[in-house]
Amino acid sequence: MSDAVDNPIDRLVTARELADQGRYDEALQELVWFHEHALEHNPSLYGVRRSYALADWAVLAEAHPPAAESLEAVRERNATALLAGQGNRDQLLDVISIDHATDQPARTRDLFLQLESVAPALAASCIRVVLPQVIAAGDAELAERLMPNPDDTIRQHADYLMDAFRERRKRFTGAPSIPAEIHNYVQDVNAILDVFAARGRHAEVRRLRQLAVDAIPATTLRRAVRASLVPGAPAWYERGVPRRRNDRLSQA
């Protein structure tokens, strides 16, 4: 166990080192501690707890069955409380995060459908985080029902992309993050388009695709988005490396 008993990040790093050394039981102890106690020491680690730490736990679970069993036990403890009407938003977010880490989006979809009857207010409050899992599960009918106004959603994504673009220009830096932001924007838009395409609403797909382009006022950026939204266009990221374009996006 790590000597830095009260330092959550040190213990997470230690868990990774132990796993790399094949010391799986010790790595699992650190990951369980981090999940259960990290926020007591540093509340700002809530995002790390539900992302990187759970991802590490899921990776360990692939090599170490006790890690898989303990992660499933955490999920089931929370799910049981939720379905008994005694759970809360944090427990639901933990379940969703575990399902995401273990690549089981259908489990989130199924739990959400049960919660709509058991705890409708709680289910409604978490639609935004449930929706990506529903889309990943391939349930286009439910995704369309849960999806907020697609026009407003696309405009919000476009505003975020433009804010990131303006910040990069202010700092006079290169633009490696701009391809990343375009990648994220195109992914978000395509997730919406895929839902309507699966529902056979192809005219709506064309309209929303055009809206996603028109919502970007910066000419060079808009050109890049238009090219990336063409069906079958290669992703802005390939094997984790941003694709280079001739356009100097940071100077548009």
Quickly count the domains: 2
pLDDT averaged over residues: 88
Poorly predicted ranges: 172-176, 239-252
- Percent of residues in helices comes to over 70%
What assembly state would you assign to the polypeptide chains in this entry?
single chain
**SS summary, helix count:** 14
Beta-strand content estimate: under 5%
Q: Count the E strands.
A: 2
Q: Would you tell me the structural class of the helices and strands? A: mainly alpha
Q: Strand-and-helix sequence, N→C? A: HHHHHHHHHHHHHHEE
Radius of gyration: 21 Å
Strand order of the largest sheet: 1-2
Largest sheet: 2 strands, antiparallel
Our measurement of the CA-to-CA distance between the termini, rounded to an integer number of angstroms, reads: 52 Å
Identify the overall geometry. Answer: globular
What does this entry look like structurally?
There is one protein chain. By secondary structure, this protein is mostly helical. The protein folds into two domains: 8-146; 150-251, no CATH class. The protein is 73% helix and 2% strand. The protein has a two-stranded antiparallel sheet with strand order 1-2. Helix 12 (177-198) packs across helix 14. It is globular, with a radius of gyration of 21 Å. Residues 172-176 and 239-252 have low confidence and may be disordered.
